[in-house]
Every structure is written in structure tokens, then in C-alpha cells.
């Protein structure tokens, strides 16, 4: 059923021409913690806007990936913003459970050092 | 002189094999606001780690880009973290002035709607 959801012409026009996969940052809407970076194609963005559930494009599996569909660690989308040149997205989300498949709350848990 | 700075073997080993351009999220270290997303190659990451000044790879100009080198809107790096699969970076920074070339504090100023 979700296959029928398409991105509106209005939103498509805001995206940078020629870009098929858009990096999407998921940020905890309450704490401000950056949780993960994944990618969206037009269809996954359309589904996310339509359903309010963060849905990405899995580059490794080459398929739509509703975050938490198997783990239960879903992301309820609070807001979505596009950057100034139309090629990056910022999602503020309510994260259920851990964002990272390792069980960590955030995927950014490998420090390369404090400056 | 910066041409001589190379990424350490230790850090290189943490990065996902075969990835040349790594998306790097800049987040305001104090407020938690996500400011921008840009890209780093190995050299710009090495320079950033060495100097503490956020330095990216400009995909449009095909050159190293020290953020703020012309605008004065520099980013002092407080910490850098890599994500779980080694293909995205999160920089916490002290942003001088606006992060966005439009004069906005953040590049993510085009709302696609609240859910």
C-alpha cells in the first residue's frame, strides 16, 4: 500500500536536482542528541512525511527500511527540515529504545578525541 | 604546509573501507542545534583532528575547505565521534557567527512540516 505514496511536486522542487539519496540526520527532539545518519530516497521521504514514521532507504539491502520495523526501535517524526542547498535532511524524532543496532542510544559512540 | 598532514593508521582503520567522502554533521556544542552537513575526505579529517578547526572537502569546488576561512564563520571543534559503521562523523563545535552562507544560524531552515 505504501508503494503508492509519492513525493509531492512542491517538496520535490525543493530538493537539489539530480540527487537520489539524501543523507538524513535523526536528532532526539527532546534532548537534542544526534542519534544516527541514514539515507532517504524520494519514496522514503514521501512515506515519512505521510506516516510520521521515519523510513529510510537501506543502501546495503537496497530496500525501503522503516526504522524499528523489526527491532521495535521506531522513530516518531516531530519535524523535518531541509538544508539550504536541498541535499540534506534533519529529522527531529521521538526515539523508542536505542537508535543504534549495537544497543547504544546513539550511533555516534566512537570518539575520535576531544580537542 | 597542511598538505603534509595525513590521517593516522589508527583512525583510518576505524573508517568504513572504500568510503572516500564521509558526511560530517556539525552540531553546536552548547545548544545542541544541528548546524550543517558537509563532507570530509581523509585529508580534511586529518587536518581537522590536527588543528581543531573544522575543515571539509568541498564537492562543488573540489578542494579543501576550512570552514570560515573566507567568511570568518569558523568552527572550533570540541569533539569528534564516528558512527557505528564508520561512515558518518559528528562534530561538536563552537560556531563563530552564522553556520549558513545565507546568514542563518543553521543551514536547516527550510521546514518540510511538523508532523
Automatic annotation (TrEMBL), chains A, B:
Pathways involved: Amino-acid biosynthesis; L-histidine biosynthesis; L-histidine from 5-phospho-alpha-D-ribose 1-diphosphate: step 3/9
EC code: 3.5.4.19
Pfam families registered for this protein in UniProt: PRA-CH
Molecular-function annotations in GO: phosphoribosyl-AMP cyclohydrolase activity; phosphoribosyl-ATP diphosphatase activity
Keywords: Amino-acid biosynthesis, Cytoplasm, Histidine biosynthesis, Hydrolase
UniProt GO BP: L-histidine biosynthetic process
UniProt keyword Hydrolase, yes or no: yes
Catalytic activity field: 1-(5-phospho-beta-D-ribosyl)-5'-AMP + H2O = 1-(5-phospho-beta-D-ribosyl)-5-[(5-phospho-beta-D-ribosylamino)methylideneamino]imidazole-4-carboxamide
SUPFAM superfamilies reported for this sequence: HisI-like
PANTHER family attached to this UniProt entry: HISTIDINE BIOSYNTHESIS BIFUNCTIONAL PROTEIN, HISTIDINE BIOSYNTHESIS BIFUNCTIONAL PROTEIN HIS7
Protein name as it appears in the record: Histidine biosynthesis bifunctional protein HisIE
Amino acid at each position: 500500500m505504501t508503494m503508492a505514496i509519492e513525493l509531492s511536486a512542491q517538496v520535490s522542487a525543493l530538493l537539489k536536482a539530480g540527487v537520489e539519496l539524501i543523507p538524513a540526520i535523526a536528532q532526539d527532539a527532546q534532548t537534542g542528541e544526534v542519534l544516527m545518519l541514514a539515507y532517504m530516497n524520494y519514496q522514503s521521504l514521501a512515506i515519512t512525511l505521510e506516516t510520521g514514521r521515519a523510513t529510510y532507504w537501506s543502501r546495503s539491502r537496497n530496500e525501503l527500511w522503516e526504522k524499528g520495523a523489526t527491532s521495535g526501535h521506531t522513530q516518531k517524526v516531530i519535524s523535518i527540515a531541509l538544508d539550504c542547498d536541498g541535499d540534506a535532511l534533519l529529522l527531529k524524532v521521538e526515539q523508542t529504545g536505542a537508535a543504534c543496532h549495537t544497543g547504544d542510544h546513539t550511533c555516534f559512540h566512537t570518539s575520535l578525541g576531544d580537542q
